Amino acid sequence: MTDMDGVLVHEERPIPGASELLAQWRDTGTPFLVLTNNSIFTPRDLSARLRASGIEVPEENIWTSALATAAFLKQQSPGGSAFVIGEAGILTAMHEAGFIMTETDPDYVVIGETRNYSFEALTKAVRLINNGARFISTNPDATGPSAQGVLPATGAINALITKATGKEPYIVGKPNPMMFRSALNRIGAHSENTGMIGDRMDTDIVAGIEAGLHTVLVMTGISSRASIEQYPFRPDEIVSSVAELLSPAVEGEGGGELAAGV
């Protein structure tokens, strides 16, 4: 399993070695999923976005926090209702899971990623939660990357709503190991022979550790060598980029253990 932003691509640009590693997994028949906390886009959108960057990932090989959230809520309340703040990724996933979108007495308020948070929608979310709707969020990422620097993300909006309501959200995406377990089930894999490649210590790595996966931190995303020291846990491996994970036949030197299916 691998994260997307910061591991395979960075602001629409492919990270060296990413396309080759995915091709190596396909050639060796190694099952894989691209996991992302990004709930803005549907898997089809993300597949097209990756293809435009020169990276081929079929939509069935993409598992998002939106899909994980919708699957969890479908299990909790089949045919339920929700007020959702977000984009096509979470809205489509919730519709496909059989949920009714409503602003009147919903079972859940679901917060996803968007670049267009409105004060009106946030006010409505706060009032609905105060009136008894259960508070759900796709992910806890406080910031996201952009070409101009960091952007406030879902976690920052979660904090705003928590401050206004006094209620914490249940977060389904990384670092909740539930997202990893649902992803493992999707490809019929077992934690003992599955690895997780990510760029964030606070989501990818800690969730991978808690799910019993072999964890690999890359330095092409949000983490730095100095930031690793802020955490009491460590990944199994730290590499400069996914290029270091290519097998000798592809790369010409070491680093093939994870690509072989660890």
Automatic annotation (TrEMBL):
Pfam families: Hydrolase_6, Hydrolase_like. Keywords: Hydrolase. GO terms for molecular function: hydrolase activity. It comes from the Bacteria. SUPFAM superfamilies: HAD-like. PANTHER family: 4-NITROPHENYLPHOSPHATASE-RELATED, HALOACID DEHALOGENASE-LIKE HYDROLASE DOMAIN-CONTAINING PROTEIN 2. This is HAD-IIA family hydrolase.
